[in-house]
Amino acid sequence: MNATLIAVALSLVSAGAYAAAAVAQSRLAGRTEPSTGVLRLLGRGAWWSAVGLNAGGALLHVAALNYGPLTLVQPLGALTLVAAVPLGARAAGRRVGRVEWRGTVLTLLGLGALLLTAGGSAPHETLTLPEALGVGAATMAVVAGLSRPGARPGLRHAAASGITSGVASALTQTLTVAVTDHSGGPLFSWRLLTVALLVSAFAMGGLLLSQTAYRGGLGAPLAVVTLANPVAAAAIGLALLGERLQGGPVSLVLALLGTAAAVRGVILLSRAQADGGTDPGEAAAAPGPVADPLPGRVVIGSPRRAESPPLGAEPLAVRAEPLAVRAEPLAVRAGARPHP
Predict the structure, then answer these.
(1) If you ran DSSP here, which 8-state letter would residue 279 be given?
(2) Which of 35, 21, 40 is nearest to 91 (CA)?
(3) What does the radius of gyration of the chain's CA atoms come to, in whole angstroms?
(4) Do residues 164 and 208 touch, judged by C-beta distance below 8 A?
(5) Exposed, middle or buried, 19 (CB in 10 Å: 0-12/13-18/19+)?
(6) What are the pLDDT tens digits along the chain (340 aa)?
(7) Alpha carbon of 35 to those of 32, 41, 81, 158, 185: distances in Å?
């Protein structure tokens, strides 16, 4: 079988494993308190299921990098978003909305345009030890900046997760090329050991950051992860591995259009996630609460407001009005004997 076809097949299965892992992490994050530590997560079977799916996807990804270039394998990772959106909707018991479909399609089209411009032959160059250390230090600085307290922590943690995963993929490509190189160099060296440690650290860091990002939902954080991952890997390839944009100015225009489409897709997914995945038209057509002709009376079967507490959670409001008692003095006639 052709090596390119093997790389594509392995990438497709890897994307499916990553999508299932993202849905599992999102469901686990929805059932976990924000203050839950890592040690508490280690005692849950759902966490280890997500870890196993991520590990399987990572192994398939590494195998795909052995048969295809980074610029081919990384764009196919965007299929994780295509698989995860319907899987997440099915897990939530709803249908995928039109806004989610539009956001997914725009994100994928943008990613495809971005990564097609960086396509090339199979990689032969690898990162030197100073380059690997520099990439690791820069990545940790960016992740520290994105992880600071502030607004939209989910999307910032998702961006940090995508960057760390993309850097881990680029470092994994260095390991793969170095191990499979038949030039007669040493199989084990300080450079390969350092790169392997960085890959392990960034892979685990990306997993924990994505777990934090999915607390606010699945669609928008996964879109940001899917966008940041290949961009970080392509940046390392262009800057350090000798890869170049194909097509000259036309390629630059295509990359800019792809960036705009991907950003628009992320915005649509963010809005759809904020609305709970419901289209505005469907929400407008939903039946509203039944008006009560007698205020203060409870209508049996009327829908309860989503923001109101459940029955029994608050005391029954009782109108306490003083009883009006007419106090009129008893008229006593002079000389009359009072009754006992």
Answers:
(1) -
(2) 21
(3) 30
(4) no
(5) buried
(6) 577 788 888 988 998 998 888 888 777 776 666 655 556 666 667 778 888 898 898 889 888 887 777 767 877 877 887 787 788 778 778 888 888 888 888 888 887 787 777 655 666 778 899 999 999 999 999 999 998 877 777 889 999 999 999 999 899 888 888 887 756 566 678 889 999 999 999 988 998 898 788 877 777 787 788 888 888 887 888 788 877 777 778 888 888 898 888 888 877 876 776 665 555 554 444 444 433 433 333 333 334 444 444 444 444 444 444 444 454 454 444 445 555 4
(7) 8, 11, 28, 18, 48
Residue among 52, 45, 47 nearest 17 (CA): 52
Q: Is the distance from CB of 127 to CB of 171 less than 8 angstroms?
A: yes
Does this model's pTM top 0.70? Answer: no
For residues 193 and 127, is the Cβ–Cβ distance under 8 A?
A: no
CA 43 to chain centre: 23
- How far apart CA 266 and CA 274 sit, in angstroms, is 12
